[in-house]
């Protein structure tokens, strides 16, 4: 089988490096390009230099140069970066795997529109564990639909810029959907001061930031006399990188369409 020619955006970032390493170690993938912002100190250097084994691929800021050889772009950057890459990829038929979080509604609509021109997997969490947990949450939410308060607690490293995490929001969507509620109508993002008693239909979010926590998520169903907690903890970013490669493999035979990791993992 031919190798997938994959470029990585944000190549010198935490996820970018994980992805470069995963591609270098995969028999069915070839690192075909690397992008980063013009101010990145690593610009112009070999994307795999940090592994001590150069790939012969330089980190570029220019999209035409960085994507010239690529059939896929894996993008874990920031919404404004991803949306710029999206336009280019849609215009040039480059498939995308988008892991970036923190999009507003307009950003999500732009991704859906681009998926009419190229194939895209877009998911706030690429790990198998989190995606299976989403199914467990749907089941639990249906059983705890009355008499249980639902709160979502997430913890991440000190460098994370968006809150709540994309995963916490996906978990909120899964739980709200199973209960026939709209997350926008019931979400409570943090509490302070005289808040009044808890609205029983609400879904609360709390975000913790500190140190090098890779990503912890707990959904709490709190009743009278008991509580159930469903928790996922990532101990390494490798799970996100491997999930992204699975997503690229899933896109091999697709030329357009918007998919998520539930599609990739056959969980829908
Ligand atoms: N879906 C999933 O499974 C996962 C999603 N994520 C998400 O991925 C994203 C990146 O996370 P992480 O790797 O930790 O972050 P980092 O900050 O370590 O990496 C982001 C990279 O993108 C670059 N970048 C920043 N702004 C832009 C821009 N406007 N255009 C292009 N590139 C840009 C950064 O450059 P510079 O450092 O110079 O600013 C950096 O190289 C986040 O949104 C995070 O939530 C993370 C892990 C898993
Ligand atoms: O920024 C991170 O690190 C992570 N971001 C994703 C999110 O916002 O859910 C996925 C994972 O939790 C790590």
UniProtKB/TrEMBL annotation:
It is an enzyme of class 1 (oxidoreductase). Coiled coil: none annotated. GO terms for biological process: diaminopimelate biosynthetic process; lysine biosynthetic process via diaminopimelate. The gene is dapB. This is 4-hydroxy-tetrahydrodipicolinate reductase. Residues 4-126 form the Dihydrodipicolinate reductase N-terminal domain. Belongs to the DapB family. It catalyses: (S)-2,3,4,5-tetrahydrodipicolinate + NADP(+) + H2O = (2S,4S)-4-hydroxy-2,3,4,5-tetrahydrodipicolinate + NADPH + H(+); (S)-2,3,4,5-tetrahydrodipicolinate + NAD(+) + H2O = (2S,4S)-4-hydroxy-2,3,4,5-tetrahydrodipicolinate + NADH + H(+). NAD(+) binds at residues 10-15, 36, 99-101, 123-126. (S)-2,3,4,5-tetrahydrodipicolinate binds at residues 157, 166-167.
């Amino acid at each position: 089988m031919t190798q997938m020619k994959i470029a990585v955006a944000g190549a010198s970032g935490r996820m970018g490096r994980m992805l470069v390493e995963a591609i270098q170690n995969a028999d069915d993938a070839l690192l075909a390009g690397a992008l980063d912002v013009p101010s990145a100190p690593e610009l112009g250097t070999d994307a795999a230099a940090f592994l001590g084994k150069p790939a012969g691929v330089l980190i570029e800021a220019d999209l035409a140069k960085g994507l010239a050889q690529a059939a896929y772009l894996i993008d874990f950057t920031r919404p404004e970066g991803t949306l710029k890459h999206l336009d280019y990829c849609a215009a040039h038929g480059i498939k995308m795997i988008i892991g970036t979080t923190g999009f507003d509604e307009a950003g999500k609509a732009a991704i859906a529109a681009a998926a009419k021109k190229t194939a895209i997997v877009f998911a706030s969490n690429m790990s198998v564990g989190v995606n299976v947990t989403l199914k467990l949450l749907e089941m639990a939410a249906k059983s705890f639909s009355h008499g249980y308060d639902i709160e979502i607690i997430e913890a991440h490293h000190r460098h994370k810029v968006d809150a709540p995490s994309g995963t916490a929001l996906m978990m909120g969507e899964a739980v709200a959907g199973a209960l026939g509620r709209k997350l926008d109508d019931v979400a409570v993002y943090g509490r302070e001061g005289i808040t009044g008693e808890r609205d029983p239909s609400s879904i609360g979010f709390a975000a913790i930031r500190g140190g090098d926590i890779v990503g912890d998520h707990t959904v709490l169903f709190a009743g009278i006399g008991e509580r159930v907690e469903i928790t996922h903890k990532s101990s390494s970013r490798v799970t996100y990188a491997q999930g992204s490669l699975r997503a690229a493999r899933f896109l091999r035979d697709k030329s357009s369409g918007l998919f998520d990791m539930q599609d990739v993992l056959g969980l829908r």
